[in-house]
Amino acid sequence: MLRRLSLRLRLSLLLGVVLALGLALGVGLLVLHAGARVRAEADGATRLARELVEATLTRLDAAPDPQAEIARLLADARRLRHVRVTLAGEETPAREDVDRAPQWFTRLVLPNAAVTRIETGRGAAIMIASNPADEIAEIWQEIVWLAIGGAGIAVAAFALVSLAVSRTLRPVATLAEGLQRLERGEHSMRVPADGSPEFVIIAERINALAATLQRLDEENRRLVRRMIHVQDEERKDIARDLHDEIGPFLFTVRAGVGALARRATAPGADPIRLAEDCARIDAQIAALQQVNRRILGRLRPAALEEMGLADALEALAQGWRDANPKVAIALSLDGASGDIEEATALTAYRIVQEALANALKHSGANRVEVVVKRSTGALHIVVRDNGAGLQATRSPSSSGLGLRGMGERVGALGGTLTLANDAKGGARLTASLPMRDGGAARH
Fold this sequence. Notes:
Blueprint: H1 7-58, H2 66-78, E1 83-87, H3 103-109, E2 115-119, E3 125-130, H4 133-168, H5 170-183, H6 197-265, H7 271-299, H8 302-307, H9 309-323, E4 328-332, H10 342-362, E5 367-375, E6 378-385, H11 401-412, E7 416-421, E8 427-434
Parallel strand pairs: 4-5
Antiparallel strand pairs: 1-3, 2-3, 5-6, 6-8, 7-8
Helix pairs in contact: 1-2, 1-4, 5-6, 6-7, 6-11, 9-10, 10-11
């Protein structure tokens, strides 16, 4: 139940309990010492009255009127505090001007009143009884005023401390509101860093978290725009390939089919020429299929799913060798064999594909080397050429959109990608991809 209360209310209740216990302890100590105080006063008054009575009795035989002397003794004794002196068998009325304490309190501090009997030797006795009613009343008044004053001080202290706690905990509501705004996605918000040093530190941490989330939001927006741009560029490339390569092939095939139809229906058609036309059309269709496979390979490498990473890279390299017979492409694919997680295998294939495209189109190299190897928990890819190299060492983020997209893909997998000039000349691209057990490139 206590856990459901607010921190401010819990602190206030704790303070109230402490003040109440302190007040109760003070009153209890005062009551505890009240009995000893009353007994000391009563004993002192009784001793003084006894001495007075005994001194008077020694003069009683020489007194001309013993009864008058006893009457003066009793009159003088009535002026004594905390004691009552009477003749045996007589009762002296209590003083009406004394504020009485409650009976339970009187019985608590002085359970039994001491009574002393002194014989006068004339057939009478003087009774000395302790009667600290006025002392008990004084102590009771002290306790009452102490309770009233202590309660007043406790209430004032409680109010002051509650106000101080409320002002101290005021930043908590601001911090909670800031966290709620962060939860709603308002990452541009900032909370004021005021209050005690502890709250200032928390506010600074919340603001730092908000700034980090805002930066990540901006990076995500840039990444989305970049991905959209890359997709648009890829679509443009595919559209250009379809227009520039597949389109002419289709036009040529269509024209060849039309010419073949006219020759086949012409009188005296030559079977040899018809066969030659069919062969040309077949060659054009085969070339069209190669272009189609190349475009499909850019979209989704079927060889990767069918043959695995090593064979897919061999096929990729062979395609570049056929298109660029003057460039030697050397492969070392020891780490590409075996089961590799699909996302890792596809990323490795794309890295090699983009690196070969850049090396063969832009570097002027006549030799490209591709190395794929494994180490514990990682797949390492190195592509180096002996071309012109880079003007300055740079990261993939400062390169073209292809390598920039590869850098983002590698970063999403938790790997690294670097592009720099090689010490032996040319450019060198290095990538490291984390590998997990299970999952394969083939399904």
